[in-house]
Design brief:
Distance between the termini: 42 Å
Number of strands: 0
Largest sheet: none
Order of helices and strands: HHHHHH
Structural class: mainly alpha
Shape: rod-shaped
Number of helices: 6
Strand content: under 5%
């Protein structure tokens, strides 16, 4: 309103009496409204830019948390698979033990290559456990196919699995207790 009053005052002060007609008045008013529209557009664009940046940040935090939750779910699944493997070892169902150990290896490799997981995981301990699992899978494969005639040390395999379960449980709790600002 103040701008409109100022434009009207300037129109009557700076224009000669003979130039103060309706067409010139509409031109001055149109120019004023165009400038006002540009100013309003500038502030709207700036506001949209701020909203866009906040939205982008919120999306990144949400994706990060979602990724953490996926890793937690995978680790929970891995811990349950370890429990199943230990039960199948007790039941002497070695063919299923081998299959579940391979499933476990797949889950752990995915977790190993997850960027969020690598920030928090005790990498050295995790890699040692994963390598022991790989060796145990190889030995179990040789045992179940008959390639290796001697018995396996199932107590050692169970201990490796228990160490892996402990590592995964600790890692899972770290991930669950991360504070997010989303």
């Amino acid at each position: 309103m103040l701008g409109l009053l100022l434009v009207g005052l300037l129109y009557f002060v700076f224009f000669d009496q003979k130039d103060q007609n309706m067409i010139n008045g509409i031109t001055v008013l149109g120019t004023y409204l165009s400038l006002l529209g540009i100013v309003i557009s500038y502030f709207q664009i700036k506001s949209v830019k701020d909203i866009n940046e906040k939205t982008k940040t919120a999306i990144e935090k949400s994706l990060q948390r979602l990724n953490q939750l996926v890793v937690v779910a995978d680790l929970s699944k891995a811990i349950k698979v370890i429990e199943e493997i230990q039960q199948f070892i007790q039941q002497k169902n070695y063919a299923i033990v081998l299959i579940r150990m391979k499933d476990l290896k797949s889950i752990l490799i995915q977790a190993k290559h997850n960027e969020e997981a690598n920030k928090l995981i005790e990498y050295e301990s995790f890699c040692i456990n994963l390598n022991e699992l790989i060796v145990d899978i190889k030995n179990m494969h040789e045992f179940t196919t008959g390639y290796k005639k001697t018995n396996l040390n199932f107590s050692k395999i169970t201990n490796h699995l228990e160490d892996l379960s402990t590592t995964l449980t600790a890692f899972e709790h770290k991930l669950k207790n991360i504070k997010n600002d989303s």
